[in-house]
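Tutorial handout. Part one gives the primary structure; part two gives the three-dimensional structure as tokens.
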Amino acid sequence: MFSVDKESRSNFYKYLAKLNFEAAKAADKEIGTWPGYGLAAPPPVMTLCAHSIELSLKAYLLDRGVEESEVKRHSHNLVKLWDACVCEGADPEMVSSEVLGIISDLLMSNRLRYGEESSLGQLPYFGPLSQLCEAALNLCGAPSLADIFQEK
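Part two.
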């Protein structure tokens, strides 16, 4: 059985964050053009993006020496995770706080599962959501596809 220990958790989170985002892009390419998704990203795409962002922010915090128990305390609250990242040196202007707030609300409330609106009354488009994912991946130093597939 595969397991991750304290020393490898941050890098594993980075890998999973990249994996989730790549899966989100592939899913959006396939189902993002279906009727009804011109106004918002499809729920499965939003779910994958939310997980990518969460794992990226958690990896960043772990790399800065924040205790794993403290990182886990933030649970799925992307806004609190982002605030913790800013306290650890992340540029506060790096991400859209509006898009982050919407996707965080959707993730924490389980509305992503059912395609419901955020309590903020909005759903994110894939473009701004993907920019948020890319910023989070860059922040944590997630591997590029070239890094993942480099020949040995």
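Part three, for discussion. The chain has one domain: 9-144. The first helix runs from residue 9 to 31.
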